[in-house]
């Protein structure tokens, strides 16, 4: 499901970029800017989750080592 969603999003972005190229970027500048903001926000959230999970895994590993 995740791969399908990613493929669909990439196809959408390619279509928007193609339209911007053919019809002029000014017509699509707002949409492209909004998409860039959303992507940046989601990327930042994913990185924060990954860092939190990594820290949690390190804490768990340290606790297991102390228990031995």
Describe the structure.
- The longest helix has 39 residues, at 29-67.
- With 68 residues, this protein is mainly α.
- The chain contains two helices and no strands.
- The protein has one domain.
- It has helices at 2-23, 29-67.
- The chain is elongated and about 65 Å long.
Q: What is the string of SSEs from the N terminus onward?
A: HH
What's the structural domain tally? Answer: 1
* Main sheet summary: none
Count the strands? 0
Strand content: under 5%
Number of helices: 2
Q: Give the C-alpha Rg.
A: 20 Å
Flag low-confidence runs.
none
Shape: elongated
Global mean pLDDT: 88
Question: What share of residues is helical?
Answer: over 70%
Terminal residue distance? 41 Å
Structural class: mainly alpha
Could you write a compact summary of the structure shown?
With 68 residues, this protein is an all-alpha fold. The protein contains two helices and no strands.
Topology, element by element:
Blueprint: H1 2-23, H2 29-67
């Amino acid at each position: 499901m995740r791969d399908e969603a990613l493929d669909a999003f990439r196809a959408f972005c390619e279509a928007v970029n193609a339209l911007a190229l053919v019809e002029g970027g000014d017509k699509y500048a707002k949409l492209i800017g909004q998409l860039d903001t959303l992507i940046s926000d989601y990327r930042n959230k994913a990185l924060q989750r990954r860092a939190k999970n990594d820290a949690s895994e390190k804490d768990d590993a340290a606790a297991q080592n102390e228990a031995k």
